[in-house]
Amino acid sequence: MNEQPRQSTNSSLAAVIAAIVDQDGSAAHGYCAPAVAGERHAFVRDLVDFADFVHLVTLLHGHVPGLVDHAAARTVEVLARGWLIKSIDAFVTERQFLNRLSVAVGPLPSTAGHSETSTVVAQQRHAIEMLAQSDRRGCALGTAVTLTLEWHPIRAILDAGALRLGIEPSICTVPSRPETLALLNDLPDPDRIARAVQFGATQLVGQHRGMWDLLQARAAVRKMQD
Q1: Domain locations in the chain?
Q2: How many CB atoms lie under 10 A from the CB of residue 125?
Q3: Average pLDDT of each block of 10 consecutive residues along the chain (226 residues)?
Q4: What is the pLDDT of residue 132?
Q5: pTM of the model
Q6: What single DSSP character describes residue 134?
Q7: Which InterPro entries does the protein's record reference (predicted)?
Q8: DSSP character string of 3-21
Q9: pLDDT per residue over 110-148, tens digit each?
Q10: Measuring CA to CA, how many Å separate 198 from each of 61, 67, 159, 222?
Q11: Cα dihedral sign for 87, 90, 92, 97?
């Protein structure tokens, strides 16, 4: 995790984090972008690929305590407490939804290199947990904020797949993008924690891109096996 965060000059912290997510997050990844842009039903038509997606997301974010739970314990910004409580409660429901989908799609699809996949995802989860438990002021908050921004495109695909399986998606109460960016705009003295927030954001989207890279590679391997 040595990548340097982007620097903010004239942009607000909210604008910088939004740019990181928009340029480097899940919705910008070549394997994810078509589904987010409106081809969700095409993406989830192949239930094997969708099952792979569900299981990898669950392996990253289906554990208790979750990323936001860890981040709440490391965040001292009083203004963020209400947002964090809402996020913690929301991800309880999201984990339940993930578990329902994991059962519905069956086991992780058989793909060459399964043991390597387990190792890579375990490393990604560990890296995310380290970010969320960082003692560097602002890093954990930046990671949590970025997860909520990233979650909405991920949830859109989960919803489409749930409907494909005949499952009614639960209501998503994860803070919206405007709510989350408003939190960053309202933080007092944001320059004090800007670099750490940006670092957490950059690293989290990097781990998500790693997940999408892995999903894309596994899908390609399965096509070669067919």
Answers
A1: 27-225
A2: 17
A3: 42 94 94 69 76 95 96 96 98 98 93 86 95 97 98 93 93 98 94 96 97 93 80
A4: 97
A5: 0.91
A6: -
A7: DUF6975
A8: PPPPPPSSS-HHHHHHHHH
A9: 888 878 888 999 999 999 999 999 999 999 999 999 999
A10: 21, 16, 29, 36
A11: negative
Question: Which residue type sits at 62?
Answer: G
169 conformational bin, left if phi > 0, alpha if psi -120 to 50, beta if neither? beta
Buried b (16+ CB within 10 A) or exposed e, 150-163: bbbbbbbbbbbbbe
Provide the residue count of the chain: 226
**Amino acid sitting at position 12:** S
Please count the other Cβ atoms lying within 10 Å of the Cβ belonging to residue 170: 15
Q: What are phi and psi of 218, to 5 degrees?
A: -65, -40
Provide the 3-class DSSP secondary structure of residue 161: helix
CB 180 within 8 A of CB 68: no
Asked if residues 194 and 138 have their Cβ atoms less than 8 Å apart, the reply is yes
Residue 113 has what pLDDT?
81
What gap in Å lies between CA 124 and CA 58, rounded to an integer?
12
Structure tokens at 171: 């209501």
